[in-house]
Q: What sequence folds into this?
């Protein structure tokens, strides 16, 4: 099994059996201009958060990753995004007893940013309000 990540990024660009075709799309290095720098449509797998819109969804993700070891894998943590202050974390682990890769995605709150916490709390409140309209059978 072959799994490749970009250096300094939480983007997985290749997943395949050794010597076989990549299971992820490969889009090359087509950049999109954003107010925060170039975002590259490389394909592969990455963590993003809603709502999907420019420039929020397309924050550059090609530098600043902190990579650490975890049991049977690695943890990749990106620095807080300059606009949203959201931290993106992907953990990649190989199952110790099965031929599988486990991905864990996390968007921990950027706790030092009071405005982000306030907005997050407003979003949670709105979701709970909307959920009250759902009738469960």
A:
């Amino acid at each position: 099994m072959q799994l490749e990540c970009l250096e300094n990024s939480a983007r997985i660009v290749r997943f395949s059996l050794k010597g076989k075709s990549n299971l992820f799309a490969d889009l090359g290095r087509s950049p999109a201009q954003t107010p925060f720098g170039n975002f590259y449509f490389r394909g592969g797998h990455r963590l993003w958060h809603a709502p999907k819109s420019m420039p929020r969804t397309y924050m550059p993700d090609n530098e600043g990753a902190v990579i650490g070891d975890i049991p049977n894998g690695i943890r990749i943590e990106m620095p807080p995004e300059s606009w949203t202050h959201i931290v993106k974390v992907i953990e990649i682990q190989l199952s110790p007893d099965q031929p599988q890769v486990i991905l864990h995605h996390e968007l921990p709150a950027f706790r030092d940013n009071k405005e982000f916490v306030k907005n997050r709390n407003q979003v949670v409140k709105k979701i709970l309000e909307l959920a009250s309209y759902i009738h469960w059978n």
The mean pLDDT is 80.
